[in-house]
Amino acid sequence: MRILVVGSGGREHALCWKLAQEAEVVCAPGNAGIATDVECVNIPTNDFHSLLTLIRERSIELVVVGPEDPLVGGLADAVREAGVPCFGPGRQGAQLEGSKAFCKAMMQRAGVPTADYQVFIDADAAKAYAKDYYAQGKKLAIKASGNALGKGVIVAETAEEAFSGVDTLKALGEAGKTLVLEQKLEGPEYSLLTITNGKDIYSLPVAQDYKRIFDGDQGPNTGGMGTYSPVSWVDAALVKLTEEAIVLPILETLREDGIEYRGVLFSGLMLTSEGPKCLEYNVRFGDPETQSVLSRLGAGFAAALAACAVGEPIPKIEVLSDAAVTVVAASEGYPGDYQKGLPIEFGEISQNVKVFHAGTTKSNGAIVTNGGRVLAVTATAATQEQARKDAYTALQQIRFDGMYARKDIGA
């Protein structure tokens, strides 16, 4: 089977690495690390015409779209119209991530347990709502409705932080044109990646993500600073409850609107005192959850994605007993401004560790930084404690100026 993976980040590197174990894989545009595992073709993810030409010329049999932007833009629709199976929702289904306001409204219709919320376009009206909310002793999460590349959520501890959050997200432009202000929930978080053929579902192993930039979950939210899998306190019964309360109802509501969703549904979840609640849906594999989850899979992943793409029954995927821990190495200053083009040095990495490239490129023959999250170092071992130790040992073999990583991933 010939597969095209669209994207250039750490998630796409993990997808290419895993799929290449079972198929012939091409990536567009890829990055410096992906190019060490599969062929990369320098076509931007928003150049649909060139991507369709590549699909035709290479006789691609399955397209797997990694990032959300091309999905929101309708790439999956264009690929299917060209007669090629695509793993990823069409433009309408992708609005679950493209518009948080749409997503919350769909959750409400589907009866999905989630935080109470209000939608605002006017900043002053949002601040007035926040002032009243905090006067009641409650707290808010301020969210940009549009896609803000992992920087569109601010959890405000005080009314003043909420006011500042409204201004910060409004400054994002189109992504922050509409804001969602929702109740801050309390409880541990977990991530569930569920692949679907439009009706049937198959959930992959659960992961836990670390969103804040600093140790101890301090500082601003990021796209994710690390993950681990499995999550000991999420048992099979909780996964089943989550599927029944959060995954299946939203897919059924989409079908009621004539939207067939084929791809992965990422459920960002919190286990509250009232049971699991959905914080958000994403319409693509999470990053860096994917790096940990795919490292725990054996055979059958490519066949399962291919089946989902054409609406066929989903074959089982082998799940290994090993634990996985992923630690992200980021550029100094992320999630704010950061420098690019810094040379990266790699030492000797043990065989049970895979370094997935997220923001890298080649310059004058050397691999250099090209993003805020630069690398995702993933270790697998018999125990989480050993995987964590091995990931951090490997991280010590990697250097670039200003490299930053949290020290408490999987602790």
Can you tell me about this structure?
The chain has 411 residues and is α+β, with helices and mostly antiparallel strands. The protein contains 12 helices and 24 strands. The protein is 30% helix and 28% strand. It has a 5-stranded parallel β-sheet with strand order 3-2-1-4-5, sandwiched between helices. Strands 12-15-18-23-20 form a 5-stranded antiparallel β-sheet. It has a 4-stranded antiparallel β-sheet with strand order 6-9-7-8, with helices on both faces. Strand 7 and strand 8 form a beta hairpin. Helix 5 crosses helix 6 (100-110), helix 6 packs across helix 9 and helix 7 runs antiparallel to helix 8. The two termini are 40 Å apart.
What is Rg? 20 Å
* Overall pLDDT level: 96
Shape: globular
Point out poorly predicted stretches.
Answer: none
Number of helices: 12
Q: Percentage of helical residues?
A: 25-40%
Oligomer: single chain
Number of strands: 24
Please identify, by name, the CATH architecture of the largest domain. 2-Layer Sandwich
CATH topology (level 3) name of the largest domain: D-amino Acid Aminotransferase, Chain A, domain 1
Which strand order does the major sheet show?
3-2-1-4-5
CATH superfamily of the largest domain: ATP-grasp fold, B domain
Structural class: alpha+beta
What's the story with the biggest beta sheet? 5 strands, parallel
Count of spatially separate domains: 4
Name of the top-level CATH class of the largest domain: Alpha Beta
Span between termini = 40 Å
Give the DSSP E fraction (strand runs of 2 or more residues).
25-35%
